[in-house]
Amino acid sequence: MVPVPDLFQGFFRPMRQLLATEESDLSTMKLDVTESDSAYTVKAELPGVDKKDIDVKIDKNVVPIHVKAERKTEQKEGERLIRRERYSGEFGRTFSLPTNINESSATAQYQDGVLLLTLPKMAAAEQKRLQIE
Fold first, then answer.
1. Own/partner pairs for 69-72, CB < 8 Å, 24+ apart?
2. How many domains does the chain have?
3. What confidence category does residue 66 fall into, taking pLDDT thresholds of 50, 70 and 90?
4. Looking at residue 64, which CATH number applies to its domain?
5. Cα angle for residues 62, 86, 8 (degrees, 5° grid)
6. Is residue 5 part of a domain?
7. What are the backbone angles phi and psi of residue 76, rounded to the nearest 5°?
8. pLDDT in tens, 14-61
9. Which residues face 105 on adjacent strands?
10. Residue 105 is part of which domain span?
């Protein structure tokens, strides 16, 4: 015999999984970050977003990406919406890198739903030897 609490958990599980999936998949971006000797390369998946709705900033070694996704639904006369799964709203992601970024040389491109950031590393400052008196 199945205990009553377990019975209800199983009953509501599909709805909880659906809600968790929608929030985690649709309002977050997936990132790939690679590093070379001179720069970091970031690829962020942002399907269906206009590039004018993407805001990227650089603050030393911190990179926040903010996105506004608006889905306009156009319904014809006599139609009614049965289900809406496409995300509409604002979301963002902030990450830090091990070294500071040269902001003046950084570039951003957006094509086919992928944001590509090339973030050159800041040249290490020359070490200054202190004279001991």
1. none
2. 1
3. very high
4. 2.60.40.790
5. 100
6. no
7. -85, 160
8. 444 444 444 444 457 899 999 999 999 999 999 888 899 999 999 999
9. none
10. 29-120
* Amino acid letter, residue 88: S
pLDDT per residue as tens digits for the range 71-95: 666 667 778 877 777 667 888 999 9
> Is the entire prediction scored with pTM above 0.90?
no
Tokens representing residue 38 in the block:
């001179």
Residue 93 lies in a domain: yes
How far CA 24 is from CA of 56, 87, 109, 125, in Å, comes to 21, 11, 25, 41
23: left (phi over 0), alpha (psi -120 to 50) or beta: alpha
What distance in Å separates the CA atoms of residue 47 and residue 53, rounded to the nearest whole number?
Answer: 12
Q: Has residue 19 been placed in a domain?
A: no
SS3 content of the chain, % helix, strand, coil (to 5): 20, 35, 45
Q: Are 117 and 63 in contact (CB under 8 A)?
A: yes
